[in-house]
Specification:
By secondary structure, the protein is α/β, with parallel strands linked by helices. It has two domains: 94 residues, 3-Layer(aba) Sandwich (Rossmann fold); 111 residues, Rossmann fold (3-Layer(aba) Sandwich). The chain contains six helices and eleven strands. The strands form two sheets. It has a six-stranded parallel sheet with strand order 6-11-10-7-8-9. Helix 3 links the parallel strand 4 and strand 5. Helix 2 packs across helix 3 and helix 5 packs across helix 6. The longest helix is centred in the middle third of the chain and has 14 residues. The radius of gyration is 20 Å and the shape is elongated. The protein starts with 11 loop residues before the first strand and ends with a strand. The structure holds NADP nicotinamide-adenine-dinucleotide phosphate (NAP).
Amino acid sequence: MPSDQNPGERQKILILGGTKEARELAQTLVENGHAVTTSLAGRTMDPILPAGEVRIGGFGGAEGLAAYLRENAVTRMIDATHPFARRISENAIKAAAETGITLDQIVRPRWQKQPGDRWRAVATLEQAADLLPSGATVFLALGRQYLDAFVPRTDCRFIIRMVDAPEKPLGFFDYALILGKPASDPSHESDLMTAYGITHLVARNSGGPAGYAKIIAARELGLPVIMLERD
Ligand code: NAP
């Protein structure tokens, strides 16, 4: 977590959020007396709201973000977004450069392979889809914008977890939907994988504790994991 650079001086801070780390940071900075606004993209219907002010929705690119920073007299911006949310992080770098406002980034360390892990690292979703053997029952714990590459694999069954129900049916030939957030207890994740007869897990190397239970569960069950790595 970035340190409080000027303790005692009240700052106007914009946190680019949508993560647990962002909520924890907002709490700390509000408690330290700063004026904190957290920005959320608006992807989930019922987000857990952080301490301080909250604004929801895109800014309109780097230019829009720069305009927001100026109009709201922000003195410091903190990018605490998910490590796979790349566009907003790029926009934050550009907007900080344009306005001269300090930007701190919270970088979540990636998960490291442990003894017993059966990971195949891939760089793209298409590579992940290609690696699945015919007849696999695949747990896609990815987020909805990462699903399309798997639709052509009509020879596999997909178990798809997402926070909110999709607005229209997904285009998969054979799939089941699980609505909800990842469990924090690995035994819940392994019960789910066993109940659905999962043979392969596809995950992104997000790092952090929130999604790690499924990785532990796959290790304990001896399941192969196709792991989308970050750049
Ligand atoms: P992205 O691809 O990097 O961003 C796409 C666009 O969404 C951005 O250009 C921006 O629109 C808007 N946006 C993204 N994050 C925003 C924020 N915090 N506040 C306001 N606008 C935001 O992002 P993404 O992968 O769709 O993720 C969206 C949000 O969900 C992020 O806040 C991230 O922390 C959270 N999240 C993402 C994941 C994930 O798997 N990607 C997982 C957990 C949480 P404009 O250009 O119009 O400003």
